[in-house]
Amino acid sequence: MxxxxxxxxxxxxxxxxxxxxxxxxxxxxxxxREIRDGAEQASAGCGIAQFSELYLTITQSIAEHxxxxxxxxxxxxxxxxxxxxxxxxxxxxxxWATGGRAPRSWELLFEAPNNGEITALQLAGAGVNAHINFDxxxxxVDTGREMGDAELAGRWDDYARINDVFAQNMDALLNRFxxxxxxxxxxxxxLSARGRLMTRIVAAARQFAWEDAEVLWALPRRSEAWExxxxxxxxxxxxxxxxxxxxxxG
Length: 250
Hints:
Blueprint: H1 5-12, H2 15-18, H3 25-42, H4 47-68, H5 75-97, H6 104-110, H7 120-146, H8 156-183, H9 189-217, H10 224-244
């Protein structure tokens, strides 16, 4: 994650990265804040800090929509999905921080060089890629089964809405980065091109994750077929993640 083994060791030692699973949306928000702050203190601008900042903003938006009670069709479902989704990220962080085996798509972000060559937008985008392409389908199926759903299709509208929140915050993040770059007298166009790529990746990933969830819905949770599907999703997310983190000129 950072230049030098000592720096990476310090990052792995952050207590927030090692914490157990969250049990409520409020706990997800607080955990993301702790992860962001701890990672930033250990390695300013690192991938974990950049993605956690974006994810915190998204989760706060979701929590506000749930409290308002007029955005989602089933607020209880969204609350449980938010927790299941967040815990996938926390599980990956815990595995990595304690020396276990984290999904490769997440390791790409956790171990991305923090040398200024990869932009904050790319780091945040790599996290979004792993979380949607690898985690979202599993969280969606697990939550639907936990809620006793007979089929997956009935959750599509709320599924689409939560992903719209992701897209909206990615757009806001891009605009902020472009404004900062322009204010510094730098050419914003290369970053804008990257941002457009990230937006396309998120839009495609949202649909692909739903299709993956449809496949997983028919499989027993601990079966070899399920595990094989997860390995395939991790491989695809890893391939995309490597592309997101390429050091492009400008």
